[in-house]
Amino acid sequence: MENEEGGRPLPPANLTVRHGGSDGGQPSEPFFIDVLGGEIIIQIEGWVGNFDGTTEIFGLVIHTNRKTSPVLGLTGPLYFNFAAQPGGHFFAFFGREGLFVDALGAYEVIP
């Protein structure tokens, strides 16, 4: 399956993508963002904590200009929040992973 513009393949609607090897909480429904329709990411909330001696990202909440995801993963002991500047939005993400997601960063369009 490809998106409407012939871009990269999209996962089937019933697929839940997982990362990590310790069951990381309950599976969540896929959270789709309609980038071609003008939906943009304006805020990321999350939780980090220590697991087996390393700091890991436990869970995320994604806010767009249209909706908010449920908690994707688990809440944890330490909360963080990245909010775009007024009128801005996030357009790309990068991170580091081992067995779990260790780090997450974002690029922002600043008006």
Report what the structure shows.
- This protein has 111 residues and is mainly β.
- It has a domain of 75 residues: Jacalin-like lectin domain (Vitelline Membrane Outer Layer Protein I, subunit A, Aligned Prism).
- It has no helices and six strands.
- The strands form two sheets. Strands 3-2-1-4 form a four-stranded antiparallel β-sheet, with no helix packed on it. A two-stranded antiparallel sheet has the order 5-6.
- It is globular and about 40 Å long.
- The N terminus is likely disordered.
Kindly state the mean pLDDT as a whole number? 82
Shape, principal axes of CA atoms = globular
Total DSSP E strands: 6
Look up the CATH topology of the domain at 35-109. Answer: Vitelline Membrane Outer Layer Protein I, subunit A
Q: In what order do the strands lie side by side in the largest sheet?
A: 3-2-1-4
Keywords:
disordered N terminus; 111 residues; Vitelline Membrane Outer Layer Protein I, subunit A; four-stranded antiparallel β-sheet; mainly beta; single chain; two-stranded antiparallel ribbon
What's the short story on this structure?
This protein has strands at 41-51, 54-64, 72-73, 78-83, 89-97, 101-109. With 111 residues, the chain is mainly beta.
Q: Layout of helices and strands, plus pairs?
A:
Elements: E1 41-51, E2 54-64, E3 72-73, E4 78-83, E5 89-97, E6 101-109
Antiparallel strand pairs: 1-2, 1-4, 2-3, 5-6
